[in-house]
Amino acid sequence: MRHENFDIIVIGGGAGGLFAVSVASALGAKACLIEKTRLGGDCTWFGCVPSKALLKSAHVANLINRFELFGLNLSKGIKLDTAGVMPHVRDIVHEVSTHHPNELFEKRGIKVVIGPVKFINQNTVEVNNQKFSAKKFIICTGSHPAIPPIEGLDKAGYLTNENIFDLDVLPKSLIVLGGGPIGIELSQALNRLGVKVHVVEMLERILFREDKEIASVLENSLKQEGVEILAGKKAVKVYKKDNLVTVIIESGDGRREEISAENILVAVGRAPNLEGLSLDKANVKHDKKGLIVNKYLQTTNKNIFACGDIAGPYQFSHVAAYQAGICVRNALFRRIAWQRVSYDNIVWATFTDPEVAHLGLIQEEAQKKYRGIKIYKSEYGVSDRAVTDSEKNGLIKIITDKKGYILGAHITGSSASEIMQGLLIAKSFNIKLSKIAEVLFIYPTLSEIVKKTAAKPLIAMADNPLIKFVLNIIKKR
Question: Do the beta carbons of residue 410 and residue 357 sit within 8 Å?
Fold first, then answer.
């Protein structure tokens, strides 16, 4: 059996792993990347890329159906054929997957090994009957859809984000279990493409991690478009009859009802990819959420670090890449140069229409942690660009401490994820919200909503009697 040695071995070829092995190699480490199946990870093959391609097709379909809103007229009407949507999505996935071929990493001197991996001791793994040892390891094997133990679900069959994009024909109706980002994005996309969608959410509202006001704007939009949202209900039994799947759902008070559709999509959360790794032989402890890591992303084996979904607590590709950078630094450098992980400026987006973007604390979290917080809001309708684009359905909400520093920002509306980037920079560099009002923004843009909102602390300050007195003294007469 052949045995190779490396400075660092990265296990998992997703967003975190690709970034980690690239940085490690650039820093001069002899690096190896081990991936079970193919490079790209869940984001490329089953998550971000196909879902955004599907959402774009759905957005275009929605625009076509709303042509009259833009002063257009089609005398003979229009009929959409969605048969080509899923093949289009798969073409997009294939194109993106070519951006990180094995050969690209091998040209950089990185060894790429494809196959199932397992630890055989604390510094050695086995893949395809070959042994690979390293001074340091980074584990970033990702996650997979969590499947709830619902009676009859396995027998009836179901879809997840890992197989829904393999469909050639969209179902006429679909029951979506889960009102989180994955479930809601796919629900809106499929509804806009002609699928009747029922969303079953066990909690009292969808997108429970989002600010309530922000989430309610999106929820109202989904309902207006025809998505049926059944919140505060859980699926307790599934059975199939006459080519339809029926789900029995139960309310908090015990009342039950039945809903039926052609298929079920399970989107209730994610579970860590731990199977087959033999982590006990590496002295790496874990629980149902994933690997146990400290503030340096170090596992219970001091030579093994972890990033991405397997390490939590946030399951986003950009978070995985951020964590990967920290892992490489802490794995290769002396302790004096180590970096702690920080989620003070955590940011993410749900790419629905309207989009939802989240930065830092929501209102309830800020109220628990700080005294004297201030909240500033602006409707999208105050933006001339939102009016010209017929995108007035939106809200920006910014939370500051009593000194005016940003604690959280939450946006729902067109391009919310892009608009949020400026606020992310301001919060990351500890810039007061009111300072943003001094910046010259391009007109007309949706980003101007940030400037209008940032001006509100100054307007409030101008109403202070003392400020008015000072302004009156220095005013030119």
Answer: yes
